[in-house]
Amino acid sequence: MNSGREIISLVAERQDLEQFRRKNWEGTFEEYLDIVRAEPRVTRNAFERVYDMLMSYGTESYEEFVRSECATASLAIQTIMAATRSLAWTIPSGAW
After folding, report:
1. Structural domain count of the chain
2. Is residue 28 in some structural domain?
3. Integer Cα distance of 13 and 9 in angstroms
């Protein structure tokens, strides 16, 4: 089995610091507020971004039997979003 030092060195070898710097922004709070003013969508959380990805493909409506499949899919997405929001705000006991 690898020792802790060997594992850390393996991880360090696979890191690309230049790529990390390109993907991670650093700046002041004032600069962040300027970005938010220019592009408010940067404040969306992960659940909202997943919803955006799903909705970006569009929707289709068609009738099958009695119910509308589009409405059912929309309700399913709304249910998932509501459930994940409530999970995101759950604080485990003993966390305080």
Report:
1. 1
2. yes
3. 6
Q: How far apart are CA 48 and CA 1, in angstroms?
A: 42
State the residue range of the domain holding 22. 4-88
Residue 94, in any domain of the structure = no
CA dihedral 74, 39, 16, 3 (to 10 degrees): -60
The answer to whether residue 66 is domain-embedded is: yes
Helical ranges in the chain per DSSP H: 4-14, 17-23, 29-38, 46-55, 69-88
Q: What is the pLDDT of residues 6-63, one digit of tens each?
A: 888 888 888 888 888 888 888 999 999 999 999 999 899 999 999 988 888 887 776 6
Most distant pair of Cα atoms in the chain: their distance? 63
- State the amino acid at position 64 in one-letter form: E
Alpha carbon of residue 63 to chain centroid: 32
